[in-house]
Amino acid sequence: QVQLVESGGGLVQPGGSLRLSCKASGFTFADYGMSWYRQVPGKEREFVARISPTGLGRDYADSVQGRFTVSRDDARSTIHLEMNSLNIEDTAVYYCNARVMRNDYWGKGTQVTVSS
Question: Which residues are CB-neighbours of 97 under 8 A, at least 6 positions away?
């Protein structure tokens, strides 16, 4: 079955950087676009970034444009989210998403905390 496992979260100071990863299995990874979302307690999950199956198409939320970069490694069935110039508002649980055969799949998330 489809499985998504995020990693790479942690505690970072404002202005710092982190690299998140999402390892996928259970489907033909190269055929599907992949996305990152994030959520803070009491708020709805929000879109962060998306990458197309070819990797040529990338979309970002306005709040992260220019600071975050999404990439994919089809050989490892993995996507990454490079996060730079982090600020306190980036604190959230970050989730990997795949829409496979019209079904949405989510990982369990990885916590990112930006604090001095």
Answer: 4, 34, 35, 36, 37, 104, 105, 106, 107
